[in-house]
Amino acid sequence: MPISEAYIACVAYEIERIGCCLVKADREYLVGTLASLKKLKRLATDNDKVNTLLALPWNNLKQEVQASLNKKSSDDKSSLIEKKTIEEGDEQQVLLGIWKALLTHVKSFIDISVANNSPSSERIKPLTYKSLCVSLPYQLHQNGLASYLYSIAQYCQARQLPRVDYLVVKEGTRLPDGILVTEIEAVMEFHAQLENIVSSVRDSEDRFQIESSDLKFIHKPRAKKASRKQVTYTPLTGE
After folding, report:
1. Which residue from 101, 122, 96 is spatially nearest to 110, judged by alpha carbons?
2. pTM (2 decimals)?
3. Contact 107/148 with Cβ under 8 angstroms?
């Protein structure tokens, strides 16, 4: 009985969760890591791609997959042991932890820039939602970061500080939530804020020293869904 495409898609999704990939070569499926895929692409030729793919020793693939499984297992165990669950009333401490993580990221960038004598034009690389959650000692999913970053944005606005929440970006666009790639002015303002954060911390780090009571957790209001009403288009010409 042939395997359905839906089943294959489910298998591919589960394999991706352990950092591996499912590769189709003619009627065969291979499982390998991203490193394996790069090797395959380098070895492959236009005339003999299938044979080249299948020529990679299975033992190499098996070892890399097993290494990915072991790493995933150890990461899961460490996160379960070390990370704390967020109970009601813990939001202030989580906010403070996020604030400190962002400031630590900025200070590390400044220290590395000074040590390497990096040019002042070099821009700090923001953290992704996922990487920030991994660094925190709490069991916080990246989808739950929005309200915390919103609270930090409100605090920065009230204290006339640069947008520290801009140090967290989406992995796909490398931009903060709410900013689109097509919004040129917003993107330029985002880059300006990054430079402002670094220069402000470098010049006056004391302005960023806060207590947990200074931050107030605010539930971010949900974005309104776009209206599905029919739009009437007005032609640009008189036709």
Report:
1. 122
2. 0.60
3. no
